[in-house]
Design goal:
Blueprint (H helix, E strand, L loop, with lengths): L2 E10 L4 H32 L5 H12 L12 H19 L16 E6 L3 E4 L2 E4 L22 E6 L5 E11 L8 E6 L3 E5 L4 E3 L3 H4 L1 H12 L6 H35 L2 E5 L3 H4 L6 H7 L1 H14 L3 E5 L25 E3 L5 E3 H19 L17 E3 L17 E3 L17
Parallel strand pairs: 7-10, 10-11
Antiparallel strand pairs: 1-6, 2-5, 3-4, 5-6, 7-8, 8-9, 12-13, 14-15
Helix pairs in contact: 1-3, 2-3, 5-6, 6-9
Length: 427
Amino acid sequence: MSRSVKRAFKYRFYPTGAQAAELERTFGCVRKVYNLALAARTEAWTLRQERVNYNATSAMLTAWKKTEELAYLNEVSSVPLQQALRHLQVAFTNFFAKRAGYPTFKSKKKSRRSAEYTTSAFRYRDGKLTLAKMTEPLDIVWSRPLPEGATPSTVTVSQDAAGRWSVSLLCDDVIPDAPAANAAVGVDAGLDSLLTLSTGEKIVNPRHERADRARLARAQRNLSRKEKGSVNRAKARLRVARAHARIADRRRDHLHKLSTRLARENQTIVIEDLTVRNMVKNHTLARAISDAAWRQFRTMLEYKADWYGRELITVDRWFPSSKLCSACGALAETMPLDVRTWACQCGAAHDRDINAARNILAAGLAVSACGAGVRPQRESSRTGQPAVKQETSGATQGIPSPSGREGCQPLIPDMVTPSVKYRWPTR
């Protein structure tokens, strides 16, 4: 069935000189208010063990505007300033819930330049968007239409490091029914092949960063030769930012297409729980791992599986998918990374990645069939009830049959077994 969701639609726009100046002032004021409120909350807790909430910082903002030093805060719309305080409140909520680190101050050079407007601070009529403190609508390139009859509830204006202006409109949208799918697929992430599916298909890794590495290196060398604070250095920095933006845009587009395809074609998707932040500590592979963007792909897959009513299962990171024979269940003692094909003692010949994808699928189906670790476990993938598999026909210990649920046995005795990280109900 169709599902109503909140969805952001992002567009490029080209501001006039006056609009750009107004937005730049707003970005600076948003950053200033955020930093002042963060300093006040930190000081209150450090010196007096006092917790300051959003209402208290909102009252502080009113007082700041009345001072001579911060009177310039009155020159911009008050709504983005209030939204900055709300964002800080969310950051502290996540910190106290141990979902994130302690909030940090915003930097003029490194932090994202953005401002958020609610319905009282913008006007959207006849396909034209006008922000508070502006007399003319923004020149937006409507690359795709908004949902029919949709009215934005929130508008976020931002400027990236490459100087590109973007506006994001948050609207109610209805995700159309996806074609019925009964297929299940296991996904193994890699570097030679970006993804290997249990069906045997290998998706080539585009290596976007490597393709543009020479261009990026030239731009960075040119930047290093420019004098700090000069106009030429600002121009060189912009060329570096544009090279990075080109890489990121192509990577994001590719991952969106892959994740949408997998979510629409399969009812059950099984992936590995990879700890990318630990893997990039390997300085030999860090650049290639970052370019593959496995974490970004997983994030896309999570919300798209929710959109289309699919089931996304994540098996434990310690599950030995590469060393386990998908035909007989035998476990190899070692499996160095340079070994891409291997033969089991049962006579089966395996491609390392395809074999791993099939084992990941088998582990996910075993979890789903036997009900192990169904509750979402976001703190650690090694907690919860161990996953088990059902007995297959004969003496074979290979891929479990998803149809039978009796006679469940441990998938790999005396070893860490997979557990579910995320699971959405089938709609």
